[in-house]
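Something for you to look into today, if you have time. I want to see for myself how the chain folds. Leave the record below and I will have a look.
***
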Amino acid sequence: MKKYDSILRYGKRETHAVLEGNPTIMIQEKIDGANASFELVDGEVFAFSRNMQLSESEGLRGFYQWTQANIDPTKLQEGKVYFGEWTAPHKLNYGEHHHKFFLFDVFDLQTEKYADFDTVSEVAKLLGLQTAPLFYRGEFQSVEHIQSFVGQSKLGEVGEGVVVKNPVYVDRHGGNVYLKFVSDYFKEAHFSKQDKPKNSGDSLQDFINATLTESRVSKLIGKLVDEGKISEDYAIEDMGTILKSLGNSVFEDIMKEEQDQLFKTLRKKLSRNVPVVVKKVLVAEGRA
């Protein structure tokens, strides 16, 4: 199965390059749901969550069943993966828009390229689907202009954030890079001066305090519900199951999202300790 490319938080290493040169960009609503996809294989519609192929018993809170009932295989192309978001209830209330699939992208497995926005819109129309709501399409103006859309929503009262696409930009590996800007409510790390936790004097502990947030853990617990590992009405009595099911996912998520900051913290901590070790070496060698 083809996984959807990770969407990077703006501000991480090399993300500024996506917006250099005032490119034509698209700003779409970031939907609070479960990443999902489907494709045609030997005339049959296969459905996937981000991590696995779905089935009747593991249906991503109804997504598998929805694809079997609503996606016409005669309108799909083999070798294409149709990516989007399934709005199983998470933090935000989308009302009538819950349990709907919003198409993001169409990926060609042969060329390993995503289709352009107009093509995705045409595919959505053919399949009777909606695309992720579009706030803006045009020349990049400023980061502040992008941030002005954060918190807006065309699906509910408030939005999680926005996803920004520069369709012509590729990184050094030849892959597309999409950016995300999220509202304060959905921030999964707090490194800025105004909202970071009180400095403990231990840089590693400060990193943990800044990244092991309620927003991050809530997101990961939501994924456990999506994957059927815990029920939708989970409670404190399920804490043991939750801790066991989370496994390494907290660590992996922090490493994926905050690795740059960890290396920065480690580099600073090492720099402060290098003089101490150098002095010890000089003393031990009789050079001091």
User: Anything to note?
Assistant: The chain has a mean pLDDT of 89. The first strand starts at residue 7 and ends at 9. Helices lie at 63-70, 117-127, 143-147, 203-211, 214-226, 239-246, 249-284. The CA atoms of residues 65 and 240 lie 30 Å apart.
